[in-house]
Amino acid sequence: MKLTKTLFLSEPYRKELDVTIIDIKEHKKHKALILDSTIFYPEGGGPEGDRGFIDETYIVNTIHGDEGEILHVVDPSCSLEIGTTHHLRLDWAHRYHYMVQHTAQHLISGILFTSFGIDTLSVHLSDTYIAIETGEPVIDQETLYHIEDEVNRAIITGGATHTKIVSQEDVPILNLRRSVKVETDVRIVSIEGYDEIACGGVHVDNISELNRVMYLMSESIRGHVRLFFLVSDIAKEEMRGYKEVVDEMKNTLSVPRERIIERVKENQLEIVSLRREVHLYQQSIIEQTLSSYMKGKETPIVMMDVSEYSFDALKVLSHILLDVPKIVLCAIKERDKENMNYLICIKGIEHEQELYGEIKLKVLQSIKAKGGGKAPLWQGIAHNNKEILREVEKVCNRVIYG
Ligand SMILES: [Zn+2]
Questions:
Q1: 88 CA to centre of ligand 1 in angstroms
Q2: Which of 87-101, 156-170, 175-189, 325-339 has the lowest mean pLDDT?
């Protein structure tokens, strides 16, 4: 195996380096360059692998190969050759994001353990958040705020991160919060006063670089509480986003921040009550309209467009129809430009199934009607076409009166 001299641990802030290609391998339809030395951190332990450029060629990821070698993954069309020397440039924004996230996770897990006796079982770092699966089944809200406060106090105070190599025999003395997974000498990373753990990752020099940590939310996973945190500018943006929402709500509702929730609840109750009122009002109008259509007719044939009524007009109508002994009715309600709802009621006349069959064949099919039902009510959705009322009326007159 070709060995690469790694500089990302000893010089985590180094962004550029001249390197020589010592081997080239195939990697899942890509090429992978092995270099004599590198500042690119290979994926593992939470952070993503580094990306960046070797001269003008983009390195999409850095990973460990099957034999532990460090692979700089590039496009298969890459024409760089073994033995040639090039300039390596890190995508610093990407790397620094993960250095910050990863160090923040050390700090949070350290404080969870030392101040609150809470274990970290697993960790996930993303483009935006840190997720920490704790060993606890429940953590109350007050404790969560205490955790957030203590992490931020630590960041304000600041604390250097240190690394040292210790032998296996010395590990038990350190009393680490997590057992050591390697069998060789161990790299111990500590944040002064807050955390000490075995880690092979890259970290920022001082936790003051984290700027701030925001507790975002928690969820339950495998019977444990998983906590989500945002760090630095991502936390700042999230907080500003909240502020914008609150300001907008304050203006829209004309209340101070403390009264927003109360006002929203009041408004919801008002909406429920208004809806009920509208419903009753609508019901009485529809009843009156219907009875005026039916007046003096032995078998009323009623065509109604209830588009101007509220959303549940057809439902109201179908309830009213329950008490009507004899009627042939077709009602429509526009949903939008393309679609409308329809309701057909055939009650108290002979051959009602036959009449519905005729309406379906002659009219409903032409407007691609979907839906169904059974006597005396059929309903569904169709292409918006108000002309069908006249067509349905013709069919009804023909079937009933011949
Ligand atoms: Zn680490």
A1: 24
A2: 175-189
**Number of domains the chain contains:** 3
**72-106: per-residue pLDDT in tens?**
999 999 999 999 999 999 999 999 999 999 999 99
Burial track 54-90 (b if 16+ CB lie within 10 A, e otherwise): beebebebbbebeeebbbbbbeeebeeeeeeebebbb
CA distances from 263 to 246, 254, 272, 365 (A): 13, 9, 14, 49
Q: Which residue range forms the structural domain that includes residue 361? A: 296-401
Neighbours of ion ligand 1 (CB under 5 A): 199, 201
Instruction: Give yes or no: residues 228 and 171 share one domain.
Output: yes
Euclidean distance between CA atoms 35 and 22, whole angstroms: 5
Q: What is the CATH number of the domain that holds 383?
A: 3.10.310.40
Distance between Cα 139 and ligand 1 center (Å): 25
43 falls within a domain:
yes
